[in-house]
Predict the 3D structure of the following.
Amino acid sequence: MFELNQLVVYPSQGVGKVERIETQSIGGASAEFYIVRILSNNVTLMVPVMNAENVGLRSVCSREEGLAIFESLKDRSNFTGYTGQNWNRRYREYSENLKSGDLNDVAYVLKELFLIGKDKELSFGERRLLEQAMGLVTMELSFAIEQDQDEIKEQINEMFSDVIDAQKKDC
């Protein structure tokens, strides 16, 4: 159970804050809801307390988990590339990973798209997914390791500077 003012992560939305826990009557049945305000865009979500884990609501990762995510981004040994996969299949896979709520899955999408961008220019859809993954990863890491989100984004961009430089040369 989450507490008032606790930072939580809602899949594909990012980090939010539990502002209230309230009981509402819906269809004659009473149910408790977390009222969560997403910090990046001020969207307010009502998440049923009984169903919170099923929809993927979770606590922000620990500092140790956040640092492990950084290390996983640096490791390029498991990158297989996009050979044999068409864009539609990759898009579905990446979208599912972003919706999973698992920070490791989101970081995987971020790394894959950066590395794919080394070999070819990313499409509009790929760039959009890259931006979404970057936002989700950097926001959660900023709270987990207590560092400014822009600094984290800069560090990630630095990790992939060889990829970014290759993209600029192609333009």
